[in-house]
Every structure is written in structure tokens, then in C-alpha cells.
Task: inverse folding
């Protein structure tokens, strides 16, 4: 979750939504994102809304303490119940992210999940995920999460090579993420994800192959592989600007993506979103699919974003300000925007085109349709689905996904 917040209109103190937001809600799945903004150290590439103990000291008082954070977040879940009123939908997905959620006690994460269950109910097949730093969990912790209702866990692996982890300022040791997969399986987790990053300065093709092979060998049923984005204001951006480490170019990113597709597909993984592969449909991350398909979700926590029925809003960033708002009986929302029909159309194209199923050609305007025909001729869109009215990226199209999307929405 990026640290910068957009502009928007003020959020009502009680968090009330326009009546239009819940029209047709019963036809849309509902998810919860629970943000834990704490990290033991800040990774050099990270631009997320996270805080170390040093960064919080003296700036938020006791309200910003992670010791009572679960209680504060539960207060926002209860606020969500008031705002959404008699919305009868059980929650389809819960995703606990950060930061490092597993810096909190396992009982805290379970208590946060219990608040969602008690206030809204969970669907019988609800997907319940937490992110985890490999060094912040052990078998007992993972067992406590599984017993508390979590059924999916996502470990930040990033790389199997020590020198790459060092550039990223990652604190775990090579081999620990793979061990975590085995521990999660032993605890009863059916679905396990490993997150990888490619294109780190100093990484070679062979380094990347070794990371993929290590991840595959660990036995997860889902792998996410993201190109490194160097965000302004991060430690890594400053190091590159000073010439301490080289910037990786787009051609290298493309080569690494092709290596990922080759290795992962050869091991029985299938892409279903440009940066995500799963061994089966059941292994897909349903929570992320809510985002990609424009469903409804409530984001609880500092800086968290929410979307319900075409209304998007975001919370204040700082944990102290967030806790103070809830303690004062106010919504922690910092601002919101009501999306127009055109906004929603454009977002559907932006997000759905990245999916295996693609997006309907009916979403495109005349200029976008003309661009889609050019993309088809250039081998960027699959002719089979196109003939049936859908724009689906080919492998080459996935390499140029951002450019294809821009053409189709302009």
C-alpha cells in the first residue's frame, strides 16, 4: 500500500457513504483488508505506509503502540458495521497486510479476524490470508494462525541470493522462506504464496533462475513475481542517484519475466494475472481478484484504501492520528471520491486486461477498439478470445501490458 494519499473531498466524521454506494451490493462480493503498519526495519525499496519503532517514537504516543493496535483496528471494523448498516453479505475474503503483520502476536491477528467474523460473518469458503516475514514466524505461530481461522499465508521471499537481499535491505536469510512453506504446510495451510522481486541491481539471470527454482522447490501453490520499481524517496532511489548501485533497465525486466514464465509454467504453475501464477484455480488469490474486478472491500488501518459501490476512500496515514480519530468516535477517513461511470469503465480496462480472462471489447470506445485491432495485428492480443469479444494479452502482450492498456483506454 503506497504511502502517498490522493486528493479528494472531505470524509464525513461518521464515515457515512452516499446511498448509491450500497445499491446492488448483494450482487458484489465483500472483502476486508486489515493493514498492520509496523516493521522491524525499513527495506530500502519500500514506499509503503509503514513505521519502525524509531520512526514512531515521540510522534504518536501510546496511541501508536503496536501493543494495543489490534484493539484500535477492531474499533474500525465495528465502525464499518455501522456504516454499512444492514448489509447482509458475509465477507468473502480477509487479507492482513503491511508492514509486517506477524510482528503482532498471533492472538492479535486472530482477534482482528474474529471481529470481522462477529460483525459481518464469513462465507463458508472464505479466503483468510496474512502476509508474513519469514523471520517473524515459527511453527507455533503458524499453528496458532491456522487454528484461529487463517487458511492462506504469503511469505516475502524476494530472492534466494544473499547479495540481492542485501541490496533490498531484507533481513531474512536465504533458505528461511522455503523452510516457512514446510512449516505452514505442517500447520495445515492448504494455500501458500511466495513473493519474489526481479530486476534488483546486481542480480544476474542465473541469480533469478536460482530464486525461481528455490521457490518452486519449496512447494507453494502460488508465486507472485514483481519487477522492482524504484520509488522516489526510498533509500534505494538515493543509492542509485548517488551512483552506488546501477539502475536495471526495461530490457532486463522483460528477460527476467520470460525466465519466470518459462520456469513457472514448466513446473505446473499457470499465470492468471500478469504478475501472479498458481498451480490451480483454487490457488489463486481471491482477495486480489476482488481488487482487479472492482468488487467491494473495506480497508481498515492507517492509510488503508476502501471501495464500496463506486465510492473510494482512504484513511489518515499516521498510526497515532488513526487511533486518535477512532478513540474520539470519528471515522479515520482522510478523504474520498465518488467514481463516475467513465472512471469505472477506465479502471475496468486497466485492471481486467491484466487477467487471464482479459476484458470485454464492449468496454472500449472507438479509439480503444482501433488500438485493440492494432494490438491484435502486432501479436499483443490473442486472436481466439478476440474473435469472441474479449481482449486477452499474449505473452508478448504481457511484457508490454502497461503500454497496451494505455492505448486501449486513450
Result:
Amino acid at each position: 500500500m503506497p504511502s502517498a494519499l490522493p486528493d479528494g473531498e472531505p470524509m464525513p466524521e461518521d464515515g457515512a457513504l452516499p446511498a448509491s454506494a450500497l445499491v446492488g451490493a448483494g450482487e458484489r462480493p465483500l472483502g476486508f483488508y486489515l493493514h498492520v503498519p509496523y516493521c522491524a526495519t525499513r527495506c530500502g525499496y519500500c514506499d509503503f505506509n509503514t513505521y519502525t519503532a524509531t520512526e514512531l517514537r515521540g510522534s504518536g504516543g501510546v496511541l501508536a503502540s503496536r501493543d494495543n493496535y489490534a484493539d484500535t483496528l477492531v474499533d474500525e471494523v465495528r465502525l464499518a458495521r455501522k456504516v454499512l448498516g444492514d448489509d447482509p453479505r458475509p465477507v468473502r475474503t480477509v487479507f492482513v497486510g503491511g508492514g509486517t503483520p506477524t510482528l503482532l502476536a498471533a492472538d492479535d491477528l486472530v482477534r482482528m479476524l474474529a471481529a470481522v467474523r462477529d460483525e459481518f460473518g464469513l462465507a463458508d469458503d472464505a479466503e483468510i490470508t496474512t502476509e508474513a516475514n519469514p523471520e517473524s514466524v515459527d511453527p507455533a505461530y503458524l499453528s496458532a494462525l491456522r487454528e484461529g481461522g487463517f487458511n492462506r499465508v504469503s511469505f516475502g521471499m524476494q530472492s534466494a541470493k544473499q547479495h540481492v537481499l542485501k541490496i533490498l535491505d531484507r533481513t531474512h536469510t536465504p533458505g528461511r522462506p522455503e523452510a516457512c512453506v514446510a512449516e505452514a504446510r505442517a500447520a495445515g495451510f492448504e494455500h501458500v504464496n511466495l513473493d519474489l522481486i526481479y530486476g534488483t541491481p546486481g542480480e544476474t539471470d542465473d541469480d533469478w533462475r536460482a530464486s525461481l527454482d528455490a521457490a518452486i522447490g519449496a512447494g507453494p501453490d502460488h508465486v507472485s513475481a514483481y519487477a522492482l520499481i524504484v520509488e522516489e524517496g526510498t533509500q534505494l532511489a538515493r543509492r542509485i542517484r548517488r551512483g552506488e548501485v546501477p539502475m536495471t533497465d526495461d530490457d532486463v525486466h522483460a528477460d527476467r519475466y520470460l525466465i519466470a514464465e518459462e520456469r513457472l509454467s514448466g513446473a505446473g504453475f499457470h499465470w492468471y494475472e500478469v504478475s501472479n501464477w498458481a498451480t490451480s484455480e483454487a490457488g489463486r488469490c481471491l482477495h486480489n481478484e476482488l481488487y482487479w474486478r472492482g468488487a467491494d472491500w473495506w480497508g481498515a488501518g492507517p492509510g488503508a484504501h476502501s471501495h464500496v459501490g463506486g465510492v473510494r476512500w482512504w484513511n489518515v496515514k499516521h498510526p497515532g492520528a488513526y487511533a486518535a480519530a477512532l478513540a474520539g468516535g470519528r471515522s479515520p477517513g482522510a478523504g474520498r471520491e465518488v467514481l463516475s461511470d467513465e472512471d469505472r469503465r477506465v479502471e475496468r480496462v486497466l485492471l481486467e486486461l491484466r487477467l487471464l480472462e482479459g476484458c470485454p471489447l464492449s468496454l472500449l470506445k472507438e479509439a480503444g477498439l482501433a488500438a485493440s485491432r492494432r494490438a491484435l495485428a502486432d501479436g499483443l492480443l490473442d486472436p481466439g478470445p478476440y474473435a469472441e469479444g474479449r481482449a486477452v494479452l499474449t505473452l508478448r502482450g504481457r511484457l508490454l501490458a502497461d503500454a497496451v492498456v494505455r492505448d486501449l483506454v486513450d
Notes: The chain is about 40% helix and 20% strand. The chain has a mean pLDDT of 91.
